[in-house]
Amino acid sequence: MSDLFSEQGGDQPGFFHEGALVAVLTTQPLDRCLDYRAPEGGCMVGAFVEVPLGPRRVLGVVWGPGEGGYELSKVRPVTRVLDAVPMREEMQQFLKRAADYTLTPLPAMLRLATRSPGLGDPPSMRLVYRLGEGEPDRMTDARAKVLEVLRDYGGLAFTLKELAESAGVTTTVVKGLVKQGAVLEEASPRDLPYPRLDPDLPGKALTEDQQAGAAALGAAVEAERYGTTLLRGVTGSGKTEVYLEAVAACLRRGRQALVLLPEIALTSEFLTRVEERFGCKPAEWHSGVTMTERRRCWKMVGEGGAQLVVGARSALFLPFRDLGLIVVDEEHDTSYKQEDGVLYNARDMAVLRASLCSAHVVLASATPSLESWANVQAGKYARLELTSRFGAAVMPEMKSIDMRAEDLPGGKWISPALRRAVERRLEDGEQSLLFLNRRGYAPVTICRACGHQIGCDHCDARMVEHRFLKRLVCHQCGESKPMPLKCPACEAEDRLSPVGPGVERLAEEAAALFPSARIAVLSSDLFGSARAMKAQVEAIAQGGADIVIGTQLVAKGHNFPLLTLVGVIDADLGLQGSDLRAAERTFQLMRQVAGRAGRADKPGLALLQTYQPEHPVIRAILAGDEERFWAAEADERRHAGVPPYGRLAGIILSSPNVQEVFDVAADLARRDQPLRAIGAQVFGPAPAPIARIRGRHRVRLLVKAEKAAPLQGALAAWLAQVRLPSSLRLSVDIDPQSFY
Ligand code: ADP
Ligand code: ZN
Question: I want to staple 692 with a disulfide (CB 3.0 to 4.6 A). Which of 129, 299, 460, 567 is the partner?
Answer without folding.
Answer: 460
